[in-house]
Amino acid sequence: MTQEIYETPTSNLKIQSEKTPTDASILLKIFTVVFALPNMAAGYFQQYVESNENQPQAIGGACGALFFAGFIVLLFQVSSRFRNQRSRYKIFMWCHITLLILMVFSAVSAFLNIAR
After folding, report:
1. Span 62-81, pLDDT tens digits
2. How many domains, in total, are found in the chain?
3. Contact 43, 61 (CB under 8 A)
């Protein structure tokens, strides 16, 4: 007669959702794209004007915004606190918001210098 003295504990918890709280919401993803696209366009047009209509350099200016924000996200990956999808999207979005504000200030200052 072999009797099992120990049994494996079981859990009766029900999983309500497969989505973890560290996943980015669809609204965060939309806002990230909404701020990234105008930033890329501003980088494109700024490089297009500054390089005397040189197309490859203008495309590099548009991609530069993506690479810069991606590099900042990469730097934040050092901390384990930011190693989830939601944090990556937030950092990427705030980088693009900051770059867009800087692009607007740069365009205004260039316009004011031309107007003098």
Report:
1. 899 899 999 999 999 998 88
2. 1
3. yes
Token couple for 106: 């740069």
CA 22 to chain CA centroid, nearest Å:
15
Question: 32 lies in a domain?
Answer: no
51: containing domain? 38-115
CA gap 16, 1 in Å, rounded: 42
pLDDT digits (tens, 9 = 90+) for 24-52: 889 988 999 999 999 999 888 888 888 88
Q: Give the number of other Cβ atoms within 10 Å of residue 19's Cβ.
A: 8
Alpha helices (runs of H) in 9-54, residue ranges in sequence order = 26-50
